[in-house]
Amino acid sequence: MRWLVLAALLAAVGTPADAVAQPLPAREVEQMRIVFPDSVQQGAMVLGKVPAGSRVSYDGRDLRVTGYGTVVFGIGRDATGPARVTVTPPGAPPRTVEIAVTPRDWPLQRVDGVPPATVDPPPEVAERIRREQARGAAARVDDTPRTGFAQHFIQPVEGRISGRFGRARVYNGKPGSPHSGMDIAAPRGTAIRAPADGVVTLAEPDLYITGGTVLIDHGHGIGSNFLHLSRLDVATGDEVKQGQVIGAVGATGRATGPHLHWGMTWFDVRIDPQLVLARAAGSPVPGTRVVVPPRAGAGERIRIVAPPGSRVAFAGAQAIVPAAGELELEAPAATGEAELVVERPGTSRLVFRIAID
Question: Which of 293, 275, 295, 294 shows the shortest CA–CA distance to 285?
Fold first, then answer.
């Protein structure tokens, strides 16, 4: 983390050469710190700490600051660095913090068997889709003081990850937009729980592309969207708490089978829910923590989080974890159990067993 300790600079101004500088109380030093990560990945939700009462801006937008000095913003899928954040503490000049943005690989994913009318809709349907998308966009514009965004998010439903954020997609052979969230395969009717506190800003049971749809505002521009639901248990305007059931898994809208699409946004910027979950698990990128999925589909590419430089062996393949702290490998084509070994630099050798189904 980058620590800019402003107190020492301020104390040095106008101090006589023979004077003895008095140390500031620890609480005052803490209040003068500006803390942001040195680097983040494309699709990240970025949390920072600034002195209470500071003015903060990023990418042309003034950021809301909590009473205890926390700010948040999102890094887009295709963003390039550095990300520049301007912080003006009370009574002090502006400071610019530069955050490196680590690029990611975006594999191609082919999705076949979706309803043809959702890929090439007729004109009257295309107009309906535009109206519905405009309603979704309007539900993401508010900058509310809610602080659910600062909680450690939970995964809204358990299941196999069948689609990942950012991947370029081809629907029925036709190129589409990059995937804007994570897909979690689960049986129809499985309960979906709110990943963090918030308020429902949109609840619609039958949108053309997304089917049963719920949007939740977690505050400061951070929001979640839940698509393809078979049942909605909340309505627009409802307050929800982390873990509260908001609906059930389905296959409504453009879907080939029952699953939950969970997307996250910072206003109109799409961010990766899996990176948000990684922070909740202890900010494993970079660090010493290793995150490996307990199961995967046969032939599916799985994401491994480990310290940069770690050696990973899986299904006969070996690789080194790059500086971004994450790696994708292909699971075996045969079902059963596969061993994955991670050797962290200078530390222990970890062995995981992954169920392949």
Answer: 275
- Spell out the residues 6+ positions from residue 205 whose beta carbon is closer than 8 angstroms to its own: 212, 213, 229, 232
Looking at residue 237, the DSSP 8-state letter turns out to be T
CA dist., res. 258 & res. 250, Å (int): 5
Strands 222-229 and 211-219 come out as antiparallel
- The ranges of the chain annotated as CATH 2.60.40.10 are 2-102, 285-356
Tally: H helices and E strands in the chain: 5, 30
Q: How far apart are CA 196 and CA 186, in angstroms?
A: 20
The pTM score is 0.70
Q: Is the pLDDT of residue 109 over 80?
A: no
* Assigned CATH topology for domain 108-277: Glucose Permease (Domain IIA) (2.70.70)
The pLDDT-based confidence of 121 (bands split at 50, 70, 90) is confident
Other beta carbons less than 10 A from residue 323's beta carbon: 11
Q: Is residue 292 within 8 Å of 355, Cβ to Cβ?
A: no
Q: Mean pLDDT over residues 177-184, rounded?
A: 89
2-102 carries CATH number 2.60.40.10: yes
Token couple for 264: 């996250």
Read off the tokens for 175: 């190129």
DSSP single-letter state for residue 250: B
Percent of the chain with pLDDT over 90: 52
CATH class of the region 285-356:
mainly beta
Question: ∠ CA 166-169-171 to the nearest 5 degrees?
Answer: 150
Closest CA to 261 of 223, 230, 225, 297: 225
Q: CA–CA separation, 107 vs 300, rounded Å? A: 12
C-alpha 188 chain-centroid distance = 25
